[in-house]
């Protein structure tokens, strides 16, 4: 990506082992993320450009001499961050704060160098032709991110939840809230094909209105009180402000949309009603380990969020389709 | 209070029963709160003035016809908010969000009308001459507020905690964190008499430096990582910014200082490291019920925060002493 709207497919040096803890993974499926659209809209033009992509599943081609648990030929899921899985933060489950870790940014490609392969990669007992590939790919980001939103939102049996955003993460936050036992799930989104899928994932109510009208509608649906959890899956300031308006006193706003703002209401708006604001990047390895069995046995079908597939050469088209909301989420097939 | 620095003692109509759920309580002890200093600094000048005070203990003089659990002659503790203790928020423990509740603002007085007396007042088996009066009075606000900071900060056995602010709430947040099992408690404050009391309450480290130097010192004391909980007991924006700088990845900032700002850093500063921001008014009745036995048997001595006593007529002097930091916390004896 060289600037707003400017995505190019180019030859770069092959991914290769650089440290003994590395693996090289041939990409079987990658995709375009809603968060890739933020730089697609607003990055500064750059002569060097930035490599893109942080979601992929694939087959291990080569491992460094210190890699012990992953072998050539393994089918693997890579979360959007890499980590050693041994530091104090990893042991506490917070792999995105690994002291040796970082985030992937070269996954829209034929192959990826994976640092700290033992810590990062999770193997799956499937072949490259598995029908489960789309659902497995969601374990790389959008499903674990939606799950993180629900976990951090303290969603449990009987919870009332508002999900803001009908992108792939929002819809999988609905699925995650449902899976954790939420009783009422209000999905705020205005693209009917998406909110219909949200209903199939477990949304009990859909609010298509935005702004004041949308807020009034959620309050009407919740006895005037709002919901105990609000999962903010967009990242823009109005979505956060909407969350403040529909969360119940004592409730939790859990954000997984990457904030595109630095400053915002953080004073008495939160304090007066004892609200909790939480969330962040959710590439926790434990989430993949928890959710993978349910993907494998078909209990959940998060891969339904993919509604278009493009070849690697067509990746710029994939961005365009997602940017104009023609596609919900675009799978990239190298 | 008629404006910044302008506190007057005046005759007003006597407190009296206005609703059948009211009680009238003769004040035995009241006090001046750190939060009273916010309007003392910055309220707009007003011809009518505002009555002040939200912390008191006293003896019930009269009860309305619907009051069932409180009787004339009872010695009672009033939290700084009143509530019915039956609504959905009260049942969830969040009495400050009671749908029929509100906050006291007439406690620096001879007597107070207490709405919803059955829900609000907690009786204590002591006389008006008890040596425990100062500690009992902290159950009205500063102790339960410090406790709320620690509870919301998820402080538990082994936690590392930074407490920002050496006012009465900060010192009792230290006591509360210690009581809940915190292992390391770093108190940030620069008034040595206060931080010395903080050490007696359980602080393991004191950082007198402010700003960048103070932050560097806390990081040095915590292996460069910060603490898992930061209890923000001030309410000014720099204190919140300091909290952001000394909280550990994945940790909690728990605020009980009433925010004197609306906007602030709320984007990636919180999100990137999966921080949680929480807190608010903590007048939970359950806190009084939990802490009262330990005050009565002397296991905790929160009343040590009072270092001056004035008569009701001298209340303006009490504000002055606290404002100029000559007094830590001023007891008012009608």
From TrEMBL, chains A, B:
<dbReference type="GO" id="GO:0016491">
    <property type="term" value="F:oxidoreductase activity"/>
</dbReference>
<protein>
    <submittedName>
        <fullName>Threonine dehydrogenase</fullName>
    </submittedName>
</protein>
<dbReference type="InterPro" id="IPR011032">
    <property type="entry name" value="GroES-like_sf"/>
</dbReference>
<dbReference type="InterPro" id="IPR002328">
    <property type="entry name" value="ADH_Zn_CS"/>
</dbReference>
<comment type="similarity">
    <text>Belongs to the zinc-containing alcohol dehydrogenase family.</text>
</comment>
<keyword id="KW-0479">Metal-binding</keyword>
<feature type="domain" description="Alcohol dehydrogenase-like C-terminal">
    <location>
        <begin position="168"/>
        <end position="294"/>
    </location>
</feature>
<dbReference type="Pfam" id="PF08240">
    <property type="entry name" value="ADH_N"/>
</dbReference>
<dbReference type="GO" id="GO:0008270">
    <property type="term" value="F:zinc ion binding"/>
</dbReference>
<feature type="domain" description="Alcohol dehydrogenase-like N-terminal">
    <location>
        <begin position="20"/>
        <end position="116"/>
    </location>
</feature>
<dbReference type="InterPro" id="IPR036291">
    <property type="entry name" value="NAD(P)-bd_dom_sf"/>
</dbReference>
<dbReference type="InterPro" id="IPR013154">
    <property type="entry name" value="ADH-like_N"/>
</dbReference>
<dbReference type="Pfam" id="PF00107">
    <property type="entry name" value="ADH_zinc_N"/>
</dbReference>
<keyword id="KW-0560">Oxidoreductase</keyword>
<dbReference type="InterPro" id="IPR013149">
    <property type="entry name" value="ADH-like_C"/>
</dbReference>
<keyword id="KW-0862">Zinc</keyword>
């Amino acid at each position: 990506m060289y600037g707003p709207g400017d995505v190019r497919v180019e030859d770069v040096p092959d991914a290769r082992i650089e440290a003994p803890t590395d693996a090289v993974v041939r990409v079987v499926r990658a995709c375009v993320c809603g968060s890739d659209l933020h730089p697609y809209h607003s990055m500064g033009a750059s002569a060097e450009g930035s490599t893109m992509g942080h979601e992929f599943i694939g087959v291990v081609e080569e491992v460094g001499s210190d890699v012990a648990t992953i072998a050539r030929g393994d089918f693997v899921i890579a979360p959007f961050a890499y980590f050693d899985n041994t530091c104090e933060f990893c042991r506490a489950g917070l792999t995105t704060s690994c002291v040796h870790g970082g985030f992937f940014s070269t996954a829209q490609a034929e192959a990826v160098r994976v640092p700290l392969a033992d810590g990062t990669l999770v193997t799956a007992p499937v072949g490259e032709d598995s029908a489960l590939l789309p659902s497995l790919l969601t374990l790389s980001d959008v499903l674990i991110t939606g799950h993180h939103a629900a976990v951090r939102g303290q969603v449990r049996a009987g919870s009332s939840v508002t999900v803001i955003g009908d992108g792939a993460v929002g819809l999988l936050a609905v699925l995650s809230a449902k899976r954790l036992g939420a009783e009422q799930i209000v999905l705020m989104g205005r693209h009917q094909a998406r909110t219909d899928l949200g209903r199939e994932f477990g949304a009990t109510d859909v609010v298509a209105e935005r702004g004041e009208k949308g807020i009034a509608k959620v309050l009407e649906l919740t006895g005037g009180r709002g919901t105990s959890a609000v999962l903010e899956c967009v990242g823009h300031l109005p979505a956060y402000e909407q969350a403040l308006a529909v969360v119940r006193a004592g409730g939790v706003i859990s954000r997984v949309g990457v904030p595109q703002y630095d400053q915002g209401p953080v004073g008495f708006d939160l304090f007066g009603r004892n609200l909790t604001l939480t969330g962040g990047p959710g590439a926790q390895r434990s989430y993949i380990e928890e959710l993978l069995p349910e993907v494998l046995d078909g209990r959940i079908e998060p891969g339904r969020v993919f509604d278009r597939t493009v070849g690697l050469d067509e990746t710029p088209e994939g961005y365009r389709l997602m940017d104009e909301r023609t596609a919900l989420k675009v799978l990239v097939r190298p």
